[in-house]
């Protein structure tokens, strides 16, 4: 289904109202999906095992087949005030299981982590669901929202952790579920690298 320039502008405008920094439209066939991406879920993500993550969601092969039914994807980059030091950036996954010994670095990591969870819970996750709803009203009734990283709907008030029901109970927010894109094999770094900006998309 073609996306007209008018519809794209509505999606772009709404995304920016919700906190987006930039929005790009690209053919769904340009989304990079790799089997190895899921390894980062299994080894290194505290959210692994939740109801929106493996093994409760489609496998990479199943997702590839589903993705083939889509024509377009909307990539959204969200605004954030999070700033990482080189040390925290290079050791982020490691620090999530083995905190650094240096107290200053430890505090910096914890602040970065809290900001990530805050951004996801307050901006990114509600934002992608609002865009999904708008896409539906525009006639794209198979539109499906995804987001980066683990689900944070059940983050604590101080963003020091996530009280997810996990595999042992029903999801606390079943009507607000969306799958993390990496959990289905999507490579966020390489997807859309060589595409033109969405502002150059013409009417269909």
Biggest sheet statistics: 2 strands, antiparallel
Q: Which structural category do the helix and sheet elements fall into?
A: alpha+beta
What is the terminal-to-terminal distance? 9 Å
Looking at the structure, what is the overall shape? globular
> Helicity level, as a percent range?
25-40%
* Individual helix count: 6
**Computed CA radius of gyration, to the nearest angstrom:** 18 Å
| Secondary-structure element pattern, one letter each | HEHHEHHHEE
Strand content: 5-15%
Number of strands: 4
The main sheet orders its strands as: 1-2
List low-pLDDT spans: 194-204
- Average of pLDDT: 86
Summarize the structure.
The chain has 204 residues and is of the alpha+beta class. It has 6 helices and 4 strands, in the order αβααβαααββ.
């Amino acid at each position: 289904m073609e996306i007209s320039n008018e519809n794209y502008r509505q999606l772009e405008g709404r995304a920016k109202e919700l906190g987006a920094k930039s929005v790009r439209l690209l053919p769904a066939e340009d989304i990079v999906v790799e089997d190895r991406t899921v390894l980062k879920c299994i080894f290194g993500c505290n959210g692994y095992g939740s109801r929106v993550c493996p093994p409760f969601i489609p496998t990479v092969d199943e997702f590839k087949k589903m993705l083939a039914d889509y024509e377009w994807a909307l990539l959204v980059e969200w605004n954030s005030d999070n700033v990482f030091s080189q040390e925290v950036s290079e050791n982020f996954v490691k620090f999530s299981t083995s905190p650094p010994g240096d107290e200053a670095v430890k505090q910096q990591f914890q602040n970065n982590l809290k900001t990530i969870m805050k951004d996801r819970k307050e901006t990114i996750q509600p934002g992608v669901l609002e865009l999904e709803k708008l896409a539906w009203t525009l006639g794209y009734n198979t539109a499906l929202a995804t987001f980066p990283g683990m689900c944070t709907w059940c983050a604590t008030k101080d963003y020091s952790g996530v009280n997810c029901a996990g595999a042992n109970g029903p999801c606390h927010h079943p009507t607000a579920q969306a799958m993390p894109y990496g959990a289905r094999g999507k490579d966020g770094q390489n997807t859309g690298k060589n595409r033109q900006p969405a502002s150059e998309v013409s009417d269909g």
